[in-house]
């Protein structure tokens, strides 16, 4: 894999898809955002998003990674990674809705294999068509890194279950129709002295006893998070996903793959930051009228930024290729998540430094990217959790 800030691909199919996606992101989607005045801090509504989902579906991007029977193109992980990198590199606010990351097929893809015909018909196929949206409700205030500490409880009740609890950081919650909620089965857990059992449920967000509240605003400033508050909310038995007690396996089922697939999006955003910084260094004049780029201190910073990016990107695509060959990549997924998160943060820190006052100003894209990238050292497993995973696998499997 060679270094480039606008990668090309030898595989003709990947090259074609990347080209088409770039055209859509830089053309039609850019125009759409401009017309509507959409910024990263906008409160997005269904009216903003549904046209993007539907258009993406028409163009074949929405759920493109899925098998053909679900309207996808059965992409390899490497091909999906290349597309996710372009999403990150585009600088478009609504890019997360093009492949279906935000409440769409990428969020729900893993659960298709656990769904009953009724669940497919009512929830998941409409979701793949861009007619419905979902959020994933796993995290709680005191159950983040240790999700098994969750307190949301499901009590069997006649022809269904009653759920009570408070979920936080449910991304896409503000515009979702239903949530995939993981809850602890009543009568199991430490107080009872046995192992907690968890189940997963499809919960309609307009059900009695279910409230969607404004979630905390993350440091990226985006309004995409919700709290899902359940108060004796009745969920029919038909909405149990998979079997009782299988909820955590379903929720964390493809955690290695997902950990790896977050990396290309972040790499894309990092690539954009390097390109913007290079442009800034070329055009910004310093004392004596020469461009910033003529200073050796700046040249060295840019050299380190590009090198760190190349290393992180090479690792990620090597792991995606191994996954495509059917190999186990548990250790590598931890390593990629750790290295990409830490490298991207260092690169963005230097990007802010080189942009000077502009890099500190809200409304400047580099300032926004810095905040967005900083979050990745915590989201989907902190850097410390990744190190724990690596150390454990080294100690016990090598």
UniProtKB/TrEMBL annotation:
Domain Acyl-CoA dehydrogenase/oxidase C-terminal positions: 245-392
UniProt keywords, alphabetically: FAD, Flavoprotein, Oxidoreductase
Ranges of residues in domain Acyl-CoA dehydrogenase/oxidase N-terminal: 18-131
Residue spans crossing the bilayer: none
Pfam name, any one: Acyl-CoA_dh_1
Xref: InterPro entries: Acyl-CoA_dehydrogenase, Acyl-CoA_Oxase/DH_mid-dom, Acyl-CoA_Oxase/DH_mid-dom_sf, AcylCo_DH-like_C, AcylCo_DH/oxidase_C, AcylCoA_DH/ox_N, AcylCoA_DH/ox_N_sf, AcylCoA_DH/oxidase_NM_dom_sf
Cofactor(s) the protein needs: FAD
Domain Acyl-CoA oxidase/dehydrogenase middle: 135-233
Domain of life according to the entry: Bacteria
CDD domains documented for this protein: ACAD
Protein family per UniProt: Belongs to the acyl-CoA dehydrogenase family.
Protein name, per record: Acyl-CoA dehydrogenase
Natural source organism: Streptomyces ambofaciens
